[in-house]
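Reviewer 2 asked us to include a model.

Predict the structure of this chain.
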Amino acid sequence: MKKILVLLISVFVFSQDKNKNSYNLLIDKEVALEYKDSLINIGWTFQEKFPFFYKTAPTGKAPKSCAFSPDDAIVAVTLLNQKKTAVQFFRTDSMHNIKTLYPYCETEDRNKGYAEGVWKNDNEFWFTRMTTGDFFIWHRNNDSIEYHDSKGRWTKIIEINPSQNLVAMSHWSSDDITIFDVNTKKFIRKIKTGETPRGIVWLNDSIFVTALFDDGDVEVFNANDGKKVHDIKGYGGAARDLQYDKENKIIYYSNMGVAKIFKYDWLNKKYLGEIKVDYKPNTIRLSSDNNYLFVSCRGPNNPKGYTRRSPRDGDIFIIDTKKWETIIKWRAGNQPTGLDISSCGKMLAQTDFQDNKITIWLIALD
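Predicted model (structure tokens):
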């Protein structure tokens, strides 16, 4: 029986290279057709155009972020507009909703607005509630939820540093970042930022970057003393999400206002380029080998308001970070928003904000 070491099903081949996931660009419909029947039999849906195989499941209202568990068995989806409902957890093999969280809130009308979430490990999922400025920790092993005051207003992004001893949260209305000890949950400090901080990415265990939605700038801080390390002047509002290439010391960030992705050399403190994408680029995710950047774009706003369905569906882009060009794009659902890559490198999860849907695209198979 032929042993498959490397197989591309959508865009990339997944392989092992020096203990890292490595992707090589190869679009091959013939390979997809060869394994079409066997993949359909285990739950994948086939389509004629790239990226060939996918799974979907309905969610609650306004699915915001999505995040694979470290073991890739579950994808978590936070809900922005479903009252009393915070997070839904789906099995990646069956797409069955296996758990839904309903945190308590003293004021019923404020029990919504669950913005972002991140896994600390396979047992702990941390997430935020904008309306009350709280953050929560769901313990999978005993199905319990911890409640904590984030010390900020309109809490958005939550990100844990590489060593998992500090967690940072951005606050849209109080214009600051708060830092907590991950192990003790003790509040450490509040760091004043520019207006409307949104995305966060850690450069190392003490230095983090945040994107300012209001003016499009990017600020760099030291979490240990709260001091600003550097300013990256943007090109107008609204900076949204960030990723960091630790090997090459490059910062990537999206700007929803100008519909562009920016590439910034952290060592030499200079821009390396920008790429135009679809309207309202939202979330960006970097492949484990740092060669490709995935971008979810919500598409154009509805003329009657951005909270309504867009006049057309949005796109997902894949950018080659070395050649600095778009490799491919495809049309997703109405307002693609959340985005995440599985730890194994084989799956890409994406939420459609207005379609109330989670989709997993098959990236590679071995």
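The helical segments are 29-34, 36-41. The first helix runs from residue 29 to 34. We have added this to the supplementary material.
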